[in-house]
Amino acid sequence: MEFLTNDEVAKNLRVHPRTVDRWLKRGMLKGYKLGKGKTALWRISKSELNKFLEKHKNK
């Protein structure tokens, strides 16, 4: 399984990294949090990104 960072997802979707953060915090995009607190890093699997894109492609 391959994982992407917030910045990689943002670059691929041509959105700001903060937008990806909002999607993760709202549960719209599933990711895995590594660490605790404000310095925690998120990782998003390619399969979860594809599910997100399928769900939102007509919006």
Entry summary:
The protein has helices at residues 6-13, 17-26, 46-56; strands at residues 3-4, 32-34, 41-45.
List the main descriptive attributes of the protein structure presented here.
single chain, 59 residues, alpha+beta, Multidrug-efflux Transporter Regulator, Chain: A, Domain 2, three-stranded antiparallel sheet, 3 helices, 3 strands, 49% helix
Describe the structure.
It is built from 3 helices and 3 strands, in the order βααββα. By secondary structure, it is of the alpha+beta class. The chain has a single domain (about 5-55), classed as Orthogonal Bundle (Multidrug-efflux Transporter Regulator, Chain: A, Domain 2). Strands 1-3-2 form a 3-stranded antiparallel sheet. A hairpin with a 6-residue loop joins β2 (about 30-35) and β3 (about 40-45). α1 packs across α2. The chain is globular, with a radius of gyration of 11 Å. The relative contact order is 0.23. The model has no long low-confidence stretch (mean pLDDT about 95).
The biggest sheet amounts to: 3 strands, antiparallel
Oligomer description: single chain
DSSP summary: helix tally: 3
Secondary-structure element order, N to C: EHHEEH
Level-2 CATH architecture: Orthogonal Bundle
CATH topology: Multidrug-efflux Transporter Regulator, Chain: A, Domain 2
Instruction: Bin the helical content.
Output: 40-55%
The unreliable regions are none
| C-alpha Rg (nearest Å) | 11 Å
Overall mean confidence score, pLDDT: 93
Judged by helices, strands and strand pairing, the structural class is: alpha+beta
Strand content of the residues, in percent? 15-25%
Termini gap: 28 Å
Total strands: 3
Q: How many domain regions?
A: 1
Strand order of the largest sheet: 1-3-2
Return the CATH class: Mainly Alpha
